[in-house]
Amino acid sequence: MIEPFQAIFSVPLSCEACIEDVSKSLHALDGIKSVQGNLKDQILVVEGTAAPSAIVSAIQNTGRDAILRGCGTSNSQFLPLFLISLHICIIPNFGEITAHHLSLYIFVGQDASVCILETHASTVKTSIRGLARMVQVAPKLTLVDLTINGLDPGNYWATVREKGDISQGAASTGNIWESLKQNLEGSESSRGVFGQVEVDSNGKGNVFLDRPVAVWELIGRSMVVSASKEGPFRKEDPNTLVGVIARSAGIWDNNKMNVWVWILILDEWCRRNQAVSPVKGLKGFRELGEMMIQMAV
């Protein structure tokens, strides 16, 4: 049995009647446990087992846009991903210049990931043709909400591959993840085989799957959607989609206070003082400061 999870959406809400209208539409779906709206923050928190894509469609049916901001459990855990260590120059309060050593630990949530699926065929104008959202709701249970748009009608396999190399499209992604382990153990199916999605005559398909995997096991690997489960794949096949699975916002990861600390990095000052400049060869100090310093507290 799938445990309920939460999803948070940005939705234009002008009054309590708007929340009631959207809530009524959502409760018509199977698996909706609760709906909470916040007029101040313009967000909607939905708890249940319904696919996020189905929730978005239900909200859009009320005439409103909906953007998924995060999904997962309410007690997301975090793991340190990497450390950035820089020697930079700071002007505190626009006063005198001082040199500081800045270390930033970057943390990522464990329970949500996303994969943008696209074709690498050179003859296709619009390459992005699918999206997979993955939400971990138990230690070894992840829900997969797969949406496809723009493929030829038919049945397609969704598989996770050993490699995250998509330089040659699906052709460079390797074998199905854990297929060797499956062969050695004689198990029925590899954990890398997620399932099938049926694409209709309009080129659209959607499927909601659950797999015995953890999200952290998937990060950095590639996902392939193709007519053939095993391959081999052709880079120029417009009906074979591929993407790299990346961490996405958990349920409360985007609900944060933005703290802007303007750090003025003076490359020339660092050079003159024989300090190591972190912006050598880069244009625009402000952009680098924004990229590095906007963090949640």
From TrEMBL:
Keyword Disulfide bond: yes
Cofactor(s) the protein needs: Cu(2+)
Pfam families in the record: HMA, Sod_Cu
InterPro entries, A to Z: HMA_dom (IPR006121), HMA_dom_sf (IPR036163), SOD-like_Cu/Zn_dom_sf (IPR036423), SOD_Cu/Zn_/chaperone (IPR024134), SOD_Cu_Zn_dom (IPR001424)
Domain of life of the native organism: Eukaryota
Domain HMA: residue ranges: 4-67
Gene3D superfamilies noted in UniProt: 3.30.70.100, Superoxide dismutase, copper/zinc binding domain
Record-stated family: In the C-terminal section; belongs to the Cu-Zn superoxide dismutase family.
Protein name (Swiss-Prot/TrEMBL): Superoxide dismutase 1 copper chaperone
Organism listed in the record: Paracoccidioides lutzii (strain ATCC MYA-826 / Pb01) (Paracoccidioides brasiliensis)
